[in-house]
Structure formats: structure tokens, C-alpha cells
């Protein structure tokens, strides 16, 4: 059994027994999908403090400090951890 990691490629199709990357077919028994996620520009729209990835720094209640707006999921960062 081996593990092959592909970076910077576009997956064309995933089937129960294979993954298609372009015209290349890879036979698989298991597929583990991980993809980079980029925060939306909400931090800019809100004029809120963001981390280096653009996630809005939120308080314990997921609100923007000194505001009543709450930010969720991939767009937020709390105490250095995203996705509380």
C-alpha cells in the first residue's frame, strides 16, 4: 500500500474506484479529499481585524469585537484557531 500526494493539480472526476486528474486515471481504494480554503473578503467589507489568511478575528461569541456582527466558518479566527 502506498500513498500518493498530488499538489497543484485539478481533479476532473472522482469515482468509487478511481480519481481522474486531467486525462490521467489513478486506481484507488480510498480517496481522502483535502482542499485549501480561502476566506471571503468579508474582513475588508467589515473593516475588521484579520489574520494573515484573511479570517476575521472574532470573540468567544463569534462576534467582531465592538460590533454586533457575527462571523462563521472559514471566514473566522478565534484565539489563533479557525473553526472554534
Strand order of the biggest β-sheet: 1-2-3
Integer-rounded radius of gyration:
18 Å
* Oligomer description: single chain
Q: What number of structural domains do the residues give? A: 2
SSE topology string: EEEHEE
User: What is the straight-line distance between the termini?
Assistant: 35 Å
Helix content: under 10%
Instruction: Outline the low-pLDDT stretches.
Output: 80-84
Rounded average pLDDT: 81
Describe the overall structure:
The structure is a single chain. Helices cover 6% and strands 20% of the residues. The chain is mostly beta strands and 84 residues long. Mean pLDDT is 81; it is low at 80-84. The radius of gyration is 18 Å and the shape is elongated. The chain has one helix at residues 42-46, and strands spanning 11-15, 18-21, 24-27, 56-57, 76-77.
